[in-house]
Amino acid sequence: MYYLIFLIFFLVIALIIFRLTKTYKKESKTKLSFREQAKLDQSIEDAKLRLLNNAIQEKRKILSKNIRPSKNLMNELNRFKYFYDIGNYKLTQLIRNGIQKCSNQNYKEALDDFNQAIELKPDESASYYCRGLVKLISKNHENILDDFDQALRLQMNEQNILFYRGLANFEAGDYDNAIIDFSRYIKEVSDFAETYFNIALCYKQLKDYEKAIEFLTETINKNSLHEAAYFERGLIKNILEDKEGCCNDLKKAMELGHLEAYHYIKELCESGSQ
Questions:
Q1: CA angle, 55 as apex, 49 and 70 as ends, to 5°?
Q2: How confident is the model over 180-210, as pLDDT tens digits?
Q3: CA–CA separation, 92 and 106 (whole Å)
């Protein structure tokens, strides 16, 4: 919806500029002296700059909306499918085409488009961020952290970078740095349950089970319907030999729709081992 509003806003601005320019030029042919024409032309250019600056600010507002990260990475990438660089049509097309190709699972071609976009305008942070997301989607981790790092260096106003860089670190097995990224994201957005869940998974991989339970509990506090948090906490309680806690969590996970919990309940809670 925000993107549609921006497009309508930009089209209205373009129409106003076109009509102003056409009207003033027509009038100036018969009524204005050279000096008056020069002043009028400068006024028109100043008006164009003001309108274009307003459009740029509107685009930044749209892209900087506090939208929570999605489990579906394409949803995050699609936030940029209406990217528009007013002064660079080719850059605009490369970024939009790259997103479309990724949506069609043409990952190599999508990366080629973003590579060209970066060569064309090396200081456009959206190109690096989108390229990093394409790599995350396609499980291509080559230099993926460099892309997210560069987007941050260019001061991209996008807090989700920290979340997705955390995912990239997690998938690379760098759990300590993943925890750092997710923790930094929590400082920006403290009520998003999935971030706490991801930190818990990091601690589970590091075999720090007490910390893992702490963050799984916080996940449930943020979202009481988070079935995977109950499931993971149940499994960790089993490791810590808390059978009652394990079974309570697994049963809750199953109630919420976690199908895998059923098999663990049969094995751990109904086999006489409790």
A1: 150
A2: 999 999 999 999 999 999 999 999 999 999 9
A3: 19
Long-range contacts of 97-101 (CB under 8 A, 24+ apart): 98/130, 98/131, 98/134, 99/130
Global pTM value: 0.76
**Closest residue by Cα to residue 120 from 110, 108, 112:** 112
Q: What is the CB-side half-sphere exposure of residue 151 using CA atoms within 13 A?
A: 23
Q: Cα separation of 230 and 253, whole Å?
A: 5
What interhelical angle do 89-103 and 125-137 show, nearest 10? 10
Distance CA 205, CA 212 (A): 9
CB 269 within 8 A of CB 238: no
For residue 23, which amino acid is it? T
Give the integer Cα–Cα distance in Å for 151 and 128. Answer: 6
Whether the CB-CB separation of 55 and 10 falls below 8 Å is answered with yes
- Residue 91 contacts residue 72 (beta carbons within 8 Å): no
Residue 140 has pLDDT above 50, yes or no: yes
pLDDT tens for 46-91 read 665 555 555 555 555 545 455 889 889 999 999 999 988 888 999 9
CB 168 within 8 A of CB 137: no
Percent of the chain with pLDDT over 70: 74
Q: Please, which residues have CB within 8 angstroms of residue 193's CB and are 6 or more apart in sequence?
A: 219, 220, 222, 223, 226, 229
